[in-house]
Amino acid sequence: MRKKAAPQSKTWSADKANQWYSQHKWIAGANFTPSTAINQLEMWQADTFDPQTIDRELGFAEGIGFNAMRVFLHSVAYTADPKGFKSRVAQYLAIADKHHIQTMFVFFDDCWNNDPKPGKQPSPKPGVHNSGWMQDPGVPALKDPKEMALLEHYVKDVLTTFAHDKRILLWDLFNEPGNSGKRDSSMPLLLNVFKWAHEIRPDQPLSAGVWDLSFEKLNAVQVLNSDVITYHNYGEEPEHLMEVRLLKTHGKPLICTEYMARPRKSTFGSIMPMLKKENVGAINWGFVAGKTNTIYAWDTPIPSGAEPALWFHDIFRKDGTVYKQEEVDLIKKLTSEK
After folding, report:
1. Contact at 8 Å (CB) between 193 and 126?
2. Are 102 and 67 a contacting pair, CB within 8 Å?
3. Pairwise CA distance, residues 80 & 103, whole Å
4. CA-based torsion, 192, 195, 201, 206: positive or negative
5. Residue 118 needs a FRET pair 20 to 30 A away by CA distance; which of 42, 187, 244, 328 works?
C-alpha cells in the first residue's frame, strides 16, 4: 500500500528564503507613519490620508539611502471602506516606488490603545509617546464571535489584491503578539493569520517578528511559520548581537524590524554597523517627528510637551532638517556601501 505524501509546507525553505534575500540590496529603512497622522487610522482613512506629506517624507528617506519602510495597516479602516482603503494602499505604493522604496505591511498589532474606532482620531496628548496608537483589532472587537470571520476576509482580500506586487517587500502578519498583557491569549489570532496567509500564499515572504524571548509558545509559532525571520531588539549592542546569533541558527535571513532607542543605548552608531556586518536588515522605529510623539520615551512623559533633551526615536523634523547630522552621515555611508 503506497504511503500518502506528507502535505507540503506553505512556509518557505531556508534555501528559498536565502535566495530571495540575496536578490536584494542590504535592507535599511524605518517604521513609517507620516508626521500628520497620530495612528494607522488617521494614516489610511479617506478624510485624513495625506499623499503630499507621504511623498515629501519618503523623499527624506530616499535622500539618506533607505530602501524599505515598515507601515502598519488597520482592519477598522478597511472595514469602513474596503475599496477606498485598497485604493489608498495602491496610491501609497506608487509614491513609495517613485522613491525606490519597498514596503513591509503590518496587519495586526497588540500595542497601545485597545479600542480603535473609525472616524476622527484623538489629538496627541502633550509629551506622551504614541498616545493615540491603536491595537488591531483591539480587545472589545476580539470578544465578538463574528470578528474572526471579518478579519479573515480583510487579510485574504488585501493579500489577494497585492499578492504579486513587487513594490511590497514582505508581509508582517502580527506586530508584537502577546503585548499589553495579552500573552498567550493572542495565540488564536496568530495561528489564524498564518493559516489565512498560507492559504493565499502571496509571492512575497510572510513573517511575524519575535520581540520577547520569554514568550516561548508564541515565538515557536512565529519562527516556524515565517519565511524570513524578523525580530525587535532595543537593547545595547552585545545583547542585540547575541539575539542575532541565536536567530541565525534557523538558517534563514534576518531582518530587525524595530530597534533604535537612544536613551537605552540602542543607537544608529552602535547597532546599524553591526547589523550591516551581520547582513541583517535594519528597520528602526520612528522617522519624522510628528503626531505619534515618538521623540518621547515609552515610560517618561513630558506633560509640558517640551522637547526632550535626548530624542527617543525619529530622525527628521517636519521641515526636513535632521536631529543629529552624524547619524544621517552614518546612515548614508552604510546604505551606499556595497
Report:
1. no
2. yes
3. 23
4. positive
5. 187
pLDDT digits (tens, 9 = 90+) for 100-114: 999 999 999 999 999
Q: Count each helix (H run) and each strand (E run) in the chain, helices first.
A: 12, 8
- E-strand spans in the chain? 28-31, 68-72, 102-109, 168-175, 206-207, 229-232, 254-258, 281-284
Phi, psi of 185 (to 5 degrees): -65, -15
DSSP letter, residue 163: T
DSSP H/E element including 125: none
Residues 313 and 108: their CA atoms lie apart, in Å, by 22
Q: 47 exposed, middle or buried (CB, 10 Å; 0-12, 13-18, 19+)?
A: exposed
Nearest Cα to 190, choosing from 226, 159, 163? Answer: 226
Q: Where are the domains of the chain?
A: 27-336
pTM for this prediction: 0.97
Per-residue b or e along 287-297, where b marks 16 or more CB atoms closer than 10 Å to that residue's CB: bbbbbbbbbbb
Location of C-alpha cell 480603535: 116
User: Could you tell me if 295 and 237 are in contact, meaning their C-beta atoms sit under 8 angstroms apart?
Assistant: no
CA distance 118 to 112: 16
Cell numbers standing for residue 213: 524571548
Could you tell me the three cell numbers for 51? 499623499
Give the C-alpha separation, 268 to 282, whole Å: 10
> Each residue of 21-35: pLDDT tens digit?
999 999 999 999 999
Q: Report pLDDT digits (tens) over 103-149.
A: 999 999 999 999 999 999 999 999 999 999 999 999 999 889 899 99
Task: Please give the DSSP secondary-structure letter assigned to residue 316.
Answer: B
Contact call for residues 32 and 69 (beta carbons, < 8 A): yes
